[in-house]
Amino acid sequence: MEALQDEGFVDRDRSNGRWHLGPELFLLGSSAATRYDLAEYARPHLCALAARTGESAFFSARRGDETVCLTREDGDFPIRSFVLYEGARFPLGVTSAGLAVLAHLPEREVGTYLERNDLTRTYGSSHGSEDLIARIAETRSNGYATNPGLVVAGSWGMAAAVFDNRHRPEWALTLTGVESRFTPDRRRELGSLLLRHAHSLSKELQSRYRW
Asked: With left for phi above 0 and alpha for psi between -120 and 50, is residue 69 left, alpha or beta?
C-alpha cells in the first residue's frame, strides 16, 4: 500500500489509519471522463423524449455482457417505473436496453452469449433461449426493443440501440412506464421516436469520437 501511496493512488487518514482512494485516481478519472462520459450528448435527447412522451427516458451503455444505466430524465406523467435507475446493471437481453444491444450484435456473438448465460436462474422461464431468440427477431424486425413487463409485472420498457463508428451497438436510449401507457398504437409511435433520437445520437457520437 505504501508504494501506491507514494504514487498518489491511495491516501491514509493519519487520525484512524484508514486507507482511501488518492488524488491521482481522481485525475485519472477526470481524464477518462472526456472519453467515456457521454451523458452531456445524451441528455438533450433524454429531455426531448421525456417532454414529448411524459415517460422516463434513460441512456445506458454496454459493459461486456451487461448494460449499465448512466443517466435518466423523468417526464411529467405522475406514475413511473423504477426498474431502471442510474447505476443499475442488467445482463444483455433482460431490459429493453440490453435486448436492443443484443439484437444488433452479429449472430455468432448472440449465439455465444446465449450459450454461456442462463438468464432463467435469476429472471425466470421467460428469459430462456427460445424466448430470447424470438424477442431478438422481433427487435430486428421493428428496429427497437420492447420489454412487456418481464422484469417487473406492469412495468414496460422500449429501447433503441446507439451505434459507434464500427456500427457496434454500444449504448441505448430507453423509455419506461406503466403498461397502460404502452398500447399497440402508442408503441409504434414511441418506437419511431426512439429510433429517430438513437440515429441522431449515433451520428453525434460518431463525429465526436473515433473509437
From this structure: beta
CA distances from 85 to 11, 35, 115, 145 (A): 31, 22, 28, 19
DSSP element (H, E) containing 33: helix 23-36
pLDDT attached to residue 211: 56
Q: Does the pTM exceed 0.90?
A: no
Going from the C-alpha of 160 to that of each of 17, 26, 110, 139, 149, the distances in angstroms are 48, 33, 17, 9, 17
Contacts for 88 with CB less than 8 Å, ≥ 6 apart: 68, 69
Residue 88 is given by DSSP the state -
CATH 3.30.450.40 fits 37-208, yes or no: yes
Among candidate residues 112, 109, 108, 101, the one with its CA nearest the CA of residue 169? 101
Distances (CA, A) of 90 to 83, 99, 101: 10, 10, 12
Residues 6+ apart with CB under 8 A from 12: 1, 5, 18, 19, 20
Query: Parallel, antiparallel, or unpaired: how do β-strands 169-178 and 56-63 relate?
Result: antiparallel
Torsion over CA: 197, 203, 204, 210 (sign): positive
* Burial label, 137 (beta-carbon count in 10 A; 0-12, 13-18, 19+): exposed
Which residue in 65, 99, 79 sits closest to 174, CA to CA? 99
User: In the chain, which stretches have pLDDT less than 50?
Assistant: 25-35
User: Domain limits of the chain?
Assistant: 2-33, 37-208
